[in-house]
Amino acid sequence: MSEAKPKLAVWKFASCDGCQLSLLDCEDELLALAGAIEIANFPEASSAIVDGPYDLSLVEGSITTPHDAERIQMVRKQSKFLVTIGACATAGGIQALRNFADVNEFISVVYASPQYIKTLETSTAIADHIPVDYELRGCPINKMQLVEVISAFIAGRKPAIASHSVCVECKQRGTVCVMVQGTPCLGPVTHAGCGAICPAYRRGCYGCYGPMEDPNTAALAKEWQLLGKTPRDVQHAFRTYNAGAEAFLKEGQAHGN
Questions:
Q1: Which residue range is the domain that position 134 belongs to?
Q2: Which residue, 2, 46, 96, 178, shows the most beta carbons closer than 10 Å to its own?
Q3: Rg of the chain over CA atoms, in angstroms?
């Protein structure tokens, strides 16, 4: 009798579904993985759902409602190994910009009947609510990094995901540093994974993959100001897709309210 395959579940919280689509974009790689793992719960791909518990859960999205704050606890209880995928799940996402304002004011402006809206004042990462076994950053995630994470789980090893900055990727593809040319860039403090796409087109990195390990954001902010950027410009740069990531959050706060 053949041994049962590990069960994989994919869960969605507050997000745009882009990271789940990255998994679907794996195509041939996903078919190969399907031979080693059972995709038991993935509503984006199939309405067929196999009951848990699950050996591996991939979680996309941030926690923004009381219901989701309860639901993520249920997901954790059903999951032996849990990986958060994407900027929303690892840092609160672009929607974490609500954390710097009055969410009730937003609701009153946007919705005709705000009394029916039940939401939290903040958008927070999954790790703020439950223990997380691994975080895969990106907006969206790199599909090959995701395949590596799943493959590592199947093989029982640590994922081989680089921890260096986007600057290394620029060097690998032979891209001349855009900051040397006078263009502000978050590459020196941003986690690698995108392949340094923006600098290749002479645009500064936007920090889609969040902070690298031990980023020196204060030094980079000084360099930006030497290039003519104001403290408000610096704050805006750190308050995008990963505004809630600790290093970016602190640097943003250091340059304004």
A1: 7-155
A2: 96
A3: 20
Q: Give me the pLDDT at residue 47, please.
A: 86
Across 78-95, b (16+ Cβ under 10 Å) vs e yields bbeebbbbbbbbbbbbbb
- Measured in degrees and rounded to the nearest 5, phi and psi for residue 138 equal 135, 150
pLDDT band at 36 (very low <50, low <70, confident <90, very high): confident
Q: Is 39 helix (H, G, I), strand (E, B) or coil?
A: strand
Distance (Å, rounded) from C-alpha 99 to C-alpha 76?
25
**Amino acid letter, residue 197:** I
Task: Report pLDDT digits (tens) over 222-242.
Answer: 999 999 999 999 999 999 999
CB 92 within 8 A of CB 120: no
Are both 126 and 185 inside the same structural domain? no
Q: Among 155, 180, 198, where does a domain finish?
A: 155
The b-or-e profile of 146-176 (16+ CB within 10 A means b, else e) is bbbbbbbbbeeeebebeeebbbebbeeeebe
Say if pTM beats, i.e. exceeds, 0.85: yes
By the 10 Å C-beta count (0-12 exposed, 13-18 middle, 19+ buried), 72 is classed as buried
